[in-house]
Structure formats: C-alpha cells, structure tokens
Write a structure and sequence with these properties.
The protein is α+β, with helices and mostly antiparallel strands. It is built from 5 helices and 9 strands; from the N terminus they run βαβββαβββαββαα. 43% of the residues lie in helices and 33% in strands. A hairpin with a 2-residue loop joins strand 3 and strand 4. Helix 2 runs antiparallel to helix 3 and helix 3 packs across helix 4.
Length: 181
Amino acid sequence: MSSDEKNLIEILEEGHKVDIVKYIDYVSAPQAGAIATFSGTTRDMFEGKAVLELRYEAYVPMATRTLTSICTSARSNWDIHKIAVAHRLGPVPVGETSVFIAVSSVHRGDGLDACKFLIDELKATVPIWKKEVYTNGEIWKENSEFLEKRDGLVKKEHKRSCCGSKVRVQEDEEEHKDNSS
C-alpha cells in the first residue's frame, strides 16, 4: 500500500459534519500502538466577542493537493501508519468540529508530533478561509500560523536576498545617469 493510500483526506461540503469515529476507524490498525487526534471546534467567545458560528470556504483541488503534500512531509519526519484529515466547509456552529486529524503510529511520540505538525501546517498553508460570525458582525480571519509563516518567509527573503541591494544600486545609478543628461 503506497503512502497516498494510507491517507484519507476529505474536504466536507456544506451540511456534512465531521464523523470522528470514521477517521479513527480508518487509522486504526493492529501495528499501531498509538492514535493521536486533534479536533478543532467552534468556541463561543473570541477576544470578548460572542461567536455564533464560523464559516469556511476553500479552493478544494488546491487544498487537497496541499494536504497530500503535508501528509508526505509528516511521513518523511515520523514513523506513521495512517493519516486522516477532514475539514468542513460552510457554517460550523458553536460546539461543532471544523477540522479533525487522526494519526496512527507504532509509538505515541511520532503520532503526537505528526498530529501537531499536520494541524499547524494545515492552518499555515492550506487554502481554506475562515469567517467568524459574531452576534454584532462578522470578519474574515487569517490564521496566526499563516501570518507567522508568511512573516518568517519575508524575513528569510530579506536576509538571503543576494541581489536586492545591488539591484537598488543599479536603479539608483540609472536614475543618476538620467538626471545628469
């Protein structure tokens, strides 16, 4: 069985709830001594505002490809048997699950570390967008993991930019030549 065949990735259309038992059953195996899970649920308050629901939208083909890539990365870092990832689209009321991840592994350390990696990478890189709906309004939210990853990439690009200052110097020299003509 290839590693892709040991992944169950589902982006659930509006109106479909996450079936936690389905995903745990999928990753269960006699050789797995551990099953690590993460369940992200809609909470009732955020920064002092009463939350009614979360609403999710996604670019599903890209989200599925990105999740497959994340699963491949997890497998290259930890000894994992099976992975299941599910994310709902549409409205998700308070108390219901938006995202669920299950990872089976021989030992708990691999499963727990991989599960944390999977949710952090999902939130940082997968094209799924969240709107928080409050009793007094709504707002599209960027995940903090996305912002941290973006900011880290921007800092790395500035640090590693081998030509950035040279390009600016060349531009300045060109402007100088234009101005002196």
